[in-house]
């Protein structure tokens, strides 16, 4: 039969085989595979060669360069947005009594204000720490600061606060300062070291004398509550046990307003044995328009480079040229992203709406008063002053 192999065990060869492949029929099996490969290559046209040897490597290189962008853009497909906060309207005017303000929020008024503790982990943010403490100074019972000789990523660092302590003499009578030695485990997840430092800050708060129902501000140095927000919370009764603060979110300076969605800062009515210092969501309640978050708001280019390598998201420095000082300066003045990333949002509408540089803002209204009173010294934080010191 024609569909059976011949008596010698030869291979079946279709009568409909084309001429190109005709020579592979009836060959020994050891030679058959190579013959078929030659057959396939002879049948590929020039356009296919271009696709295989040019387009595919180009695509692979493009994914290598921009894979992170692709992942962030597709985030709405694999991650749902978090549960929305319950926003509490924020009422304030300097000529309105505290009793009236508390009533507008649905809270009562206390006979005397609560004590307030402001606790931070410090790295190298001397200028922003100054603005923070000057803003909060009238209402803080104790400033609590913990400093390590290691970054979260295991890089040795100088004790920056200790060497600049003379600049903070105005808080010295109310300052509890502590230090902690780093473990210098560079291969470890940086969030482990960060978490250990926050645990140490819990112990430092006890040394500072915090007690039940005192207010505790939990936020990074650059997440600055407005002083009238803290004054409201210390005077009002029946405020939430844990209240997040919605802050205006700035990048590089108060010229680049990203959005109003910074939420990690929080204020707690302290409970012994229950309250733990943390920097994640701990409540569904959030108070609107409660201050400012000024991220990467540094005076010197060297400070930008240090933080890019030192903070918990240092994996975003995917290429060494990201740390080039000239590039960093261009990015700052443009309002672009230091890590060449897409916005971290949960819907395509929000991602597309925030793509590209941040629009310039020329409003310097309702900023920390100390900043405006010392505008010459801190002009790099004000609109129209994007050039940074090179040192």
Key words describing this protein structure:
disordered N terminus, beta-1,4-mannosylglycoprotein 4-beta-N-acetylglucosaminyltransferase activity, Spore Coat Polysaccharide Biosynthesis Protein SpsA, Chain A, 391 residues, alpha/beta, elongated, Beta-1,4-mannosyl-glycoprotein 4-beta-N-acetylglucosaminyltransferase, four-stranded mixed β-sheet, transmembrane, eight-stranded mixed β-sheet
Secondary structure class reads alpha/beta
Overall, the morphology is elongated
Physical arrangement of strands within the biggest beta sheet: 1-13-9-12-6-3-4-5
Distance between the termini: 89 Å
Q: Round the mean pLDDT to the nearest integer and report it.
A: 87
Our estimate of the beta-strand percent is 15-25%
Reported for the largest beta sheet, the result is: 8 strands, mixed
Q: What is the CA-atom radius of gyration, in angstroms?
A: 30 Å
Tally of separate helices: 12
At CATH's second level, what is the architecture of the domain at 86-297? Alpha-Beta Complex
Topology, number of strands: 14
The SSE string, one letter per element, is: HHHEHEEHEHEHEEHEEEEEEEHHHH
CATH class of the domain at 86-297: Alpha Beta
Q: Point out poorly predicted stretches.
A: 1-30
CATH topology of the domain at 86-297: Spore Coat Polysaccharide Biosynthesis Protein SpsA, Chain A
The percentage helix is: 25-40%
């Amino acid at each position: 039969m024609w569909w059976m192999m011949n008596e010698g065990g030869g291979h079946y060869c279709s009568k409909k085989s084309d001429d190109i492949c005709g020579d592979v029929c009836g060959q020994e099996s050891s030679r058959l595979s190579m013959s078929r490969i030659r057959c396939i290559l002879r049948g590929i046209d020039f356009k296919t060669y271009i696709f295989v040897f040019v387009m595919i490597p180009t695509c692979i290189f493009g994914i290598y360069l921009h894979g992170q962008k692709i992942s962030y853009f597709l985030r709405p497909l694999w991650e749902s947005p978090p549960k929305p906060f319950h926003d509490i309207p924020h009422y304030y005017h300097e000529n309105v009594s505290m009793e009236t303000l508390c009533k507008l929020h649905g809270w009562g008024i206390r006979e005397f204000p609560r004590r307030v503790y402001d606790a931070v982990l410090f790295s190298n943010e001397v200028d922003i720490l100054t603005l923070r403490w000057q803003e909060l100074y009238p209402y803080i019972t104790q400033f609590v600061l913990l400093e390590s000789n290691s970054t979260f990523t295991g890089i040795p660092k100088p004790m920056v606060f200790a060497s600049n302590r003379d600049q903070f003499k105005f808080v010295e009578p109310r300052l509890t300062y502590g230090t902690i030695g780093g473990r210098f485990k560079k291969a470890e997840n940086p969030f482990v070291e960060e978490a250990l430092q926050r645990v140490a800050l819990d112990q430092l708060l006890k040394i500072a004398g915090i007690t039940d129902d005192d207010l505790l501000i939990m936020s990074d140095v650059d997440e600055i509550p407005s002083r009238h927000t803290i004054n409201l919370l210390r005077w009002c009764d029946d405020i939430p046990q844990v209240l997040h603060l919605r802050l205006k979110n700035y990048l590089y300076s108060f010229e680049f307003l990203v959005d109003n969605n910074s939420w990690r800062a929080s204020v707690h009515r302290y409970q012994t044995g229950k309250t733990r210092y943390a920097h994640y969501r701990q409540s569904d309640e959030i108070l609107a328009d409660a201050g400012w978050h000024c991220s990467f708001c540094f005076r010197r280019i060297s400070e930008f480079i240090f933080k890019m390598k030192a903070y918990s998201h240092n994996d975003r420095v995917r290429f060494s040229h990201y740390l080039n000082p000239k590039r960093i300066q261009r990015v700052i003045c443009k309002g672009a992203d230091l890590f060449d990333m897409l916005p971290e949002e949960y819907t395509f509408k929000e991602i597309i709406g925030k793509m590209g540089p941040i629009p310039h803002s020329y409003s310097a209204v309702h900023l920390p008063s100390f900043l405006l009173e010392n505008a010459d010294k801190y002009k790099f934080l004000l609109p129209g002053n994007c050039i940074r010191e090179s040192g």
